[in-house]
Specification:
With 333 residues, the protein is mainly beta. It has helices spanning 199-204, 209-212; strands at residues 6-9, 16-19, 26-31, 34-39, 44-50, 67-72, 78-84, 88-93, 98-104, 117-122, 125-133, 136-140, 168-174, 180-187, 191-198, 217-218, 222-223, 230-232, 237-243, 251-258, 263-269, 274-278, 281-286, 289-294, 300-305, 311-313, 318-323, 326-331.
Length: 333
């Protein structure tokens, strides 16, 4: 196993970077009010846009500080710039550089989770799933902003509406094929509760699929433990960090779930920090450096000391870390 790291000078000190999942070597670089499309192999700035950052608002007591996050569609058609742990985001059409959608999830306890948003393809159509309230997500066409999943929650007097979901959505993770969506959210009292549902059924069969549809699954309940690393191992298998029932009694490791049934199918101690999967191996970004794990056995099969990746580029099979104006990458596959 190679431990060789490659270091490349970014075109500017970034506020955030994001891979273009379908474009090997290409990244989006957010710096102030500019967004750059940059190729790490040639160091060329392919395109440049002036962008409007969403309002992050004031600091919120008991929550995490706001930060800007980039989320690019796989082919680089659109990008979300979101204020994590806050209410708002924007979608930018990179063909024109214009804002195609304003995103707003309301203000109720947004300080507890990153902004829930993700791009995915459903039967060849590029869609954006995004939070529109603390307990609601929708599918939209990112080009027009038209909601694909319009629905109403109406209640009889003194009763909760049908399909009401008492759940705070967290970070969203589409499976590699875009069929399933996982949310790392929470409920009172509070407990972390990862949930998963089928995006195709949501698009075509049941607009209430995320709330109580046939595919909706709750994976676990863990006291005071959410906004933690989650990683798809394949199109139906999800690794969730931490082993235990409460944040004060957690063992570093992962629990592995069949996302179609919600059943625990495995797990092993050891991994901690951010999680990534490539070519059947699990990578964890711990303080001492990146650790490599055999998913089938749980064995630690290697490490790259001092390297703590914060991003993964699936088209390039690269794990990457940003330090100032330097992008450091390691080739996984």
């Amino acid at each position: 196993m190679s431990v060789t790291l490659s270091r490349t000078l970014l075109p500017a000190v970034p506020a955030e970077v994001a891979p273009l999942d379908g474009c090997p070597g290409e990244w989006l670089v957010l710096t102030g009010g500019q967004l750059l499309r940059w190729h790490s192999g040639t160091s060329e700035v392919v395109a440049r846009w002036q962008v409007r950052l969403p309002d992050s608002g004031p600091e919120r007591e008991g929550g995490r500080p706001a930060r800007y996050r980039l989320l690019a569609s796989p082919g680089g058609e659109f990008v979300v710039i979101a204020a994590d742990y806050r209410s708002r985001g924007v979608v930018i059409d990179l063909a024109t550089g214009r804002v195609s959608m304003d995103l707003d999830r309301g203000g109720y306890h947004v300080e507890q989770t990153p902004f829930p948003a993700a791009f995915l393809h459903v039967d060849g159509q590029l869609l954006l799933v995004h939070a529109t309230a603390w307990n609601r997500v929708d599918l939209s066409d990112p080009a027009t902003g038209i909601t694909i999943t319009p629905r109403r929650f109406e209640a009889a007097s003194g009763q909760r509406p049908a399909h009401y979901l008492d759940y705070f959505y967290g970070a969203l993770y589409p499976s590699p094929d875009g069929r399933l969506i996982a949310s790392d959210g929470w409920v009172w009292s509070p407990v972390g509760m990862p949930r998963v549902w089928d995006a195709r059924r949501w698009r075509h069969d049941d607009m209430y699929e995320p709330e109580d549809g046939r595919s909706a699954r709750r994976l676990r309940q863990v006291g005071y433990y959410w906004d933690k690393p989650v990683c798809w191992l394949d199109n139906t298998t999800l690794a969730v960090s931490g082993i235990g029932a409460d944040d004060e009694a957690m063992i570093p490791g992962v629990e592995i779930y069949d996302a179609t049934s919600g059943a625990v199918t495995g797990g092993f101690a050891g991994p901690q920090g951010r999680l990534y999967c490539d070519a059947g191996r699990l990578y964890s970004a711990s303080l001492g450096g990146m650790q490599i794990w055999d998913i089938s056995t749980g064995d630690n099969t290697g490490s790259v000391p001092g390297f703590m990746p914060s991003h993964y580029h699936p088209a390039s099979h690269e794990l990457a870390a940003v330090d100032g104006s330097i992008l450091t990458t390691w080739q996984a596959g």
